[in-house]
Amino acid sequence: MYKKERFEKIIAWFEQNMPIAETELHYGSAFELLVAVILSAQCTDKRVNIITPPLFEKYPDEIRMADASIEDIFEFIRSCSYPNNKAKHLLGMAKMLHHDFKGEVPSDINELQKLPGVGRKTANVIASVVFNKPVMAVDTHVFRVSARIGLTTNSKTPLETEKQLVKYIPEEKIAIAHHWLILHGRYICLARKPKCKECGISAFCKFFPLKDK
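Structure (tokenized):
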């Protein structure tokens, strides 16, 4: 199967079977999503959703968070991965957002990446989810699933994966395709034991015919 055909069939299946696909992070504003995505690095969305309600109650906006100390923030996020670094990033992000961006979360990828704790993946998530921009955030799920099912070829980095995906996915579908791949990787195409018998796209998957060999 040619790559273009594989993309078309997989996209068609997701459109039919998962017409609504959204982030599983809980948030009420662009600021809250930015905080949640920073916390989600190497941490589950489930854990982040446990941490953020009391954090947002104490610090509902960048002004309140900018006045906190690293130690204050750490106490709220200590159960997530790398809490020391993330506390520093959140405080630095809140201060820069307040002083340099007047409290407005930027929509531009390059501007977003100026914020502490915000790399390309996080910037793409914000641009995609909040501003509906046609950008592809590549996390571990997207990287793994794309390679396994044959959407990417010999990709060695998240950026290579991003470029290959946006080349074949129609621009208007890139934002939702990010969620399709994440959710598929989270619940079906698992890292160690993919649930191929439950998978709706196994007929188009590059890995499936090789699985039992």
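The domain at 30-129 is CATH 1.10.340.30 (Endonuclease III; domain 1). The chain has a mean pLDDT of 95.
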